[in-house]
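Feature request, filed as a ticket because there's no other form

It would be nice if the structure record came with a short human-readable summary line next to the tokens. Right now we just get the raw output. Example of a typical job, pasted below so the devs can see what we mean:
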Amino acid sequence: MDVVSALRTFLRVAQTKSFSAAAIDLNLTQPAVSRQVSALESHLKTRLLHRTTSALALTAEGERMLPMALRVIEAVEALGEASGAEAAAISGKVRLSLPTPLGFFLSDRLAGLLERHPALQVELLLRDEPSDVVANAIDLEVRLGPVCDSSLICRRIGWTTAFLVASPAYIEGRDTPRTPQDIKDHSCICYSRGGDGRSWSFSSGAEEVVLRIEPRLVANNSMAVHRATLAGAGLAVLSHILAGSDIEAGRLVKLMPNFPPTRLPINVVYPSRRNIPLRVTTVLDFLVQAVRGDVLMASSAPVRTIPGPLTHTTASEGCYFFPCG
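Raw output as currently delivered:
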């Protein structure tokens, strides 16, 4: 039995939670995928997957096997990349998980990377909450704010920028909030990303204020919050990747410029520092350069104005509030 091939097949089945989907990804037949997983289970003398006619799930042994299988595949691929003339060719798929607005930001820039490396494939996973990186076979994931999982390698690559905004139609006839305390008099739209999303944090540089919000509207998707804000449903904390062009065009008004939302770090996490495939380090370097090339993500310094021409970035997730980004 080819143990490496069987481990690779097991990882893909665990990631897709489907023999048929794994077969498509691996260019195999479904029976071949099933046989490889069964052979691996026989070799290891343990069941890795629970199978029913309608569902597929990892056993406890399968859960423990995932990170070990991933390390084996990474080591084998690193050996291949380090030997022969093919070492210079960056090839294969990289699974990159990141918040939706940052996914839009990168999508505008990926063409150059893919053109430079014709054998490279990038799969963007736009998710509004952190993933189980190992179980989902994710190579890189962007997380905003503090990272509490000590089992992952964490690298800070930038800082978030978000604005408190509303549409001109909403502001018309209402008192414009000038301090965080004024927000209580307004309808608010909250983003429930990774938590209840009902606390907002603002910082003047010298003072930080955390507010508990009683929202009129809550959504678990940043685009829904953005559209509701444009439609005049109330105040929202939005990433400038979403709000920047609308602020410039006058479709949204930036509020409390001297007391903006608190900025938090943008982190990239990944399972291991050892034996990282060349394709993954290539995408990681691209991601770092893209983020640091944006003036509103490159520095932790307070942001008072939107520089022009505007370069879109992201917003933040943290302990206090979850702006859309």
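Something like this underneath would help us a lot:
The chain has two domains: 1-88, 93-325.
The CA atoms of residues 168 and 252 lie 6 Å apart.
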